[in-house]
């Protein structure tokens, strides 16, 4: 393999120095760990998924690509595809409704497989992810200690290790270790990050891609077989969307109900307050007066107007 | 299907829910219901269909078995994997904040905390892995003359660099603009003060000149007084002037015509103002006050005829 490389170094002006450095990599060891991963997808994926797949292929030199598979085919067909391509691991991306992305990771002929819902995808091309690494360099894998605590996580850990770690002395790999993949468990999901190692004292920059995996099921066979584990916290995206819609609808309905109740209260006939039983306690009826019927109109009263002096004059008089 | 039963009168215990009907796929036709009733599986009253709680598979044994079969015992050099907790958080230690995810849950919604957690986990991995890698003589730093293709192209890295630079520029510009705005405000204040001072000086000068013209003062010190005043009063009278502030007339006018405050109700009588007779001058009220009492002008100028007489006399 004599490949011509292009100069790329972060921070330096791009000088295109073409040197063939094919075999000058130190003592070439034998490539014994024959892992090959098949990365492909179904039809109906969007641009982000496509870029994510490409990024994973870039990051993993032991990966192979394949054409899109029709979703109508049964899943066990994938096993045959893997056999044809001579791959023993598979990462299959399945897109549904052009919205939800599911990822299958499996060990091809007999081994276990797992299905995840993928969320929060950020690809290599995002300008906020500023790190860079050699294409095909081997990654360090970093796992959360929570992976050792549960049997299903332990199985997933083993699956990740075998799939994501680049075999030593792989022809397309670079012998340097300059980036690290982290798998962390938070909120019942697996968070994936990829960092570039700048200094050996631990300063890092994120390269990308990054995504979040929500485990659905683990199967004993590859793309089939008895279910070994089902995630109790998993809610399918459809159910999630439905719940949001129901919540919104419930809110509106509640508001309407409250309004109607208020209207009803206003317009309903107010009941008369019952007569108070104790109201008669203090009634002391007066004696009956003889009815005095006047036959003639009473004389008009003559009102004499008092000649009152004005206030000021009154005060003056008072003082005098 | 599990048939639970609730009668109208009383509610049965959940023990009855355990009664699985044998016909799993029964469609609950009338005949079948009658049979079930006859068999004693159903009680009279309202019978409600209750869903069996979903049982999720967690085949621990199966998982362990699978893992044992599937596991490849590769040397560490092939796998390069490490499991560790995140490195100590220096920042939170410095601030002496008790970081909540010390050993417990990581809050996935707090973005910054979460990303720092991942970062520190990666850091811890590196710190642990470096000696191991050195032992296996795997390099982490590539030599200066090693040129190879990178995951992101040169063009892309340039774009990133441009974006970072532009962000920095924007921040700098906004900082500059803020500072300028502050300065301008301050400058405006200074300007107003200077103008006011000049106006006051002019006023003082004019009044001094007028006094001299009218013959009230025959000292011409006000011409030179400026220089003296500048030295002495610049420290002294500034304080005095500021104490007086706006004159009483100004204050009254501000109160009456100035902005702010409710004025429409100020001319209405309140209980206190109605009962308040302190402003009552009896003499003036009874018309006995006369013109300002007797103290208006002591030096009243005599009339024309009197003046003529005086003139002719002298």
UniProtKB/TrEMBL annotation, chain A:
InterPro entries: Brix (IPR007109), BRX1 (IPR026532). Keywords: Nucleus, Ribosome biogenesis. Residues 286-320 are annotated as: Disordered. It holds the Pfam family Brix. GO terms for biological process: ribosomal large subunit assembly; rRNA processing. It is found in: Nucleus, Nucleolus. One of its GO terms (cellular component) is nucleolus. The keyword Ribonucleoprotein does not apply. It comes from the Eukaryota. Residues 303-320 have a biased composition (Basic residues). Residues 35-224 form the Brix domain. GO terms for molecular function: rRNA binding. The keyword Nucleus applies. PANTHER family: RIBOSOME BIOGENESIS PROTEIN BRIX, RIBOSOME BIOGENESIS PROTEIN BRX1 HOMOLOG. Belongs to the BRX1 family. Required for biogenesis of the 60S ribosomal subunit. This is Ribosome biogenesis protein BRX1 homolog. It comes from Oreochromis niloticus (Nile tilapia). The gene is BRIX1.
Automatic annotation (TrEMBL), chain B:
GO terms for biological process: ribosomal large subunit biogenesis; rRNA processing. InterPro entries: Ebp2. Residues 240-253, 283-314 have a biased composition (Basic residues). Keywords: Coiled coil, Nucleus, Ribosome biogenesis. The keyword Nucleus applies. Residues 227-314 are annotated as: Disordered. Pfam families: Ebp2. It is found in: Nucleus, Nucleolus. GO terms for cellular component: nuclear periphery; nucleolus; preribosome, large subunit precursor. Required for the processing of the 27S pre-rRNA. Belongs to the EBP2 family. PANTHER family: RRNA PROCESSING PROTEIN EBNA1-BINDING PROTEIN-RELATED (PTHR13028), RRNA-PROCESSING PROTEIN EBP2-RELATED (PTHR13028:SF0). This is EBNA1 binding protein 2. The gene is EBNA1BP2.
């Amino acid at each position: 393999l004599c490949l011509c490389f292009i100069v790329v170094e972060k921070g330096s002006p791009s000088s295109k120095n073409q040197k063939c450095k094919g075999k000058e990599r130190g003592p070439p060891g034998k490539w014994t760990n024959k892992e090959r991963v098949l990365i492909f997808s179904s039809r109906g994926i969007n641009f982000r998924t496509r870029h994510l797949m490409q990024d994973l292929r870039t990051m993993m030199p032991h990966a192979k690509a394949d054409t899109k598979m029709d979703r109508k085919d049964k899943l066990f067909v994938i096993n045959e595809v893997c056999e044809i391509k001579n791959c023993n691991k598979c990462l299959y991306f399945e897109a549904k409704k052009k919205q939800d992305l599911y990822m299958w990771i499996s060990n091809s002929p007999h081994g276990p497989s797992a299905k995840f819902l993928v969320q929060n995808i950020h690809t290599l091309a995002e300008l906020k992810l500023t790190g860079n690494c050699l294409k095909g360099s081997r990654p360090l894998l970093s796992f959360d200690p929570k992976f050792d605590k549960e049997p299903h996580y332990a199985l997933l850990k083993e699956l990740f290790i075998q799939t994501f770690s680049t075999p030593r002395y792989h022809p397309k790999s670079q012998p340097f270790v300059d980036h690290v993949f982290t798998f962390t468990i938070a909120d019942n999901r697996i968070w994936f990050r990829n960092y570039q190692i700048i200094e050996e004292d631990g300063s890092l920059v994120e390269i990308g891609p990054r995504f979040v995996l929500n485990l659905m099921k683990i199967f004993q066979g590859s793309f089939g077989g008895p279910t070994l584990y089902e995630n109790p916290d998993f809610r399918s995206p459809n159910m999630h969307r439905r719940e949001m819609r129901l919540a919104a609808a419930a809110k509106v309905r509640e508001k309407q109900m409250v309004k109607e109740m208020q209207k009803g209260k206003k317009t309903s006939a107010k009941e008369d307050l019952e007569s108070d039983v104790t109201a008669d306690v203090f009634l002391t009826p007066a004696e009956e007066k003889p009815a005095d019927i006047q036959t003639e109109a009473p004389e008009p009263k003559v009102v004499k107007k008092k000649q009152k002096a004005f206030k000021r004059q009154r005060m003056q008089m008072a003082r005098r | 299907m599990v048939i639970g039963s609730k009668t109208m009168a009383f509610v049965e215990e959940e023990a009855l829910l355990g009664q699985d009907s044998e016909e799993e796929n029964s469609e609950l036709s009338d005949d079948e219901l009658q049979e079930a009733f006859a068999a004693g599986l159903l009680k009279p009253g309202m019978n409600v269909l209750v869903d069996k709680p979903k049982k999720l598979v967690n085949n621990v044994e199966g998982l362990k078995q699978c893992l044992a079969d599937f596991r490849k015992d590769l040397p560490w050099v092939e796998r390069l994997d490490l499991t560790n907790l995140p490195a100590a958080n220096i920042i939170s230690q410095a601030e002496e904040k008790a970081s909540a995810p010390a050993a417990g849950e990581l809050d996935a919604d707090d973005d910054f905390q979460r990303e720092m957690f991942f970062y520190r986990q990666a850091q811890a991995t590196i710190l642990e892995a470096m000696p191991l890698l050195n032992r296996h003589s795997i390099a982490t730093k590539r030599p200066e003359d090693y040129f190879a293709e990178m995951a992101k192209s040169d063009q892309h890295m340039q774009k990133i660099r441009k974006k970072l630079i532009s962000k920095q520029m924007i921040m700098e510009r906004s900082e500059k603009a803020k500072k300028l705005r502050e300065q301008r405000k301050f400058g405006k204040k200074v300007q107003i003060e200077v103008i006011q001072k000049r106006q006051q000086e002019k006023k003082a000068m004019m009044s001094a000149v007028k006094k001299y013209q009218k013959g009230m003062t025959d000292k011409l010190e006000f011409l030179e007084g400026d220089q003296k005043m500048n030295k002495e009063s610049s420290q002294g009278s500034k304080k005095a002037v500021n104490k007086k502030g706006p004159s009483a007339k100004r204050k009254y006018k501000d109160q009456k015509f100035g902005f702010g405050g409710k004025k429409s109700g100020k001319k209405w009588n309140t209980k206190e103002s109605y009962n308040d007779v302190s402003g009552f001058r009896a003499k003036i009220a009874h018309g006995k006050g006369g013109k300002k009492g007797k103290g208006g002008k002591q030096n009243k100028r005599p009339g024309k005829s009197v003046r003529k007489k005086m003139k002719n006399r002298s």
